[in-house]
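cron nightly-structures :: item 1 of 1
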Amino acid sequence: MTDKTDTDVVVQVAQRVVNLRRAVHFYQRLLGQPADVVFDPSGLALFVLDRLRTRLLLDCEAASSLVYLRVDDVCRRVEELRADGIVVEGEPSVVCQNADPVLGKERRHEWRAFVRDTEGNTVGLVSAAAAGA
């Protein structure tokens, strides 16, 4: 087994959009950060998601995909998005309890929910909470 390096890290995930301006507004609200760059009229926008510099690319020519995005608190974020009129496709629920540090911090429940973005894509939201919280 080889050590993980920059060569085996996800660099970018593309998500299909129909209306770039509307999609950028949605993902800014969802992620709590502005887009890092918007190329309009090219129909592209980039969000750098983490310290590994993984990028979410909103692309008018991409195929739809199911993207899971980490948020601080799935339950709270779903209620905020619902208040904004966003369709909730799957209510928050505990998916599993991590017993393996490879999956995240041990003894934490992983929560998941699904929302529909403004472009018709399903987006998975994921967060972790201490067991019993």
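cron nightly-structures :: done
The mean pLDDT is 86.
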